[in-house]
Model the fold of this input.
Amino acid sequence: MNTRYCLVLGSKPDAPLPDIDPVHIFTANAAAALISEYPGKSAPHTAVVSSLQYKNNTVFEKVVHSKPDEIIIRGHKTGKNPDPVDNIPVSYMPGNEQFRLETKYFGIHNYRAFLLRPGINKLKAAVRHIQGVDYIFGSSTGLWTVLYALDRYPDHTIIVAGIGLQGGAHFYGKDEFRSEDGIKDYLVAGKLSKTARKRVRTTDENFSERVSVSMWDGPVLNK
Done:
């Protein structure tokens, strides 16, 4: 395993956080607040946020307060997005670019996850996707951030914490990760390419079992 680490943080409550000095820290949505657990680290911080969550005041405040080096918004730039603050660079990842990345690592199973996803009108969702209103094939921001880190650092090991591939509460006590999104992640995550799996470690047992990656066996901060 490559000992050059990148860290990806999600919002699952009470997640063990690896005690490492990563070369880069990626956070999903409000997990940006967890950057405070790594004071003094020189690693750049990229906050990845869904376009919907970026409009959520709670998430937006946590992202901005974390003072990331850059913000990546999953979606097209629109006039409804909050203005950048504190001179933080903001870039946008439109649906076609998200799809390219997911297909690279999940293959045709990206389509299967949508078809089997419960709780949505498939025809209506497909029409909105074609119209550019919604991006229907997307995994959660947490799982997508793992893919982004894998792609951006192809020679590094990616350590994942706080991403459990199941619905439930967030550590900050507001909103929740919907069960239907958890099911979608669960369906597709197990199809992560074998090459990518070799470079992923996690502190979450459910993630480890579903994706078939090894548990992080190094020290953690909150144990």
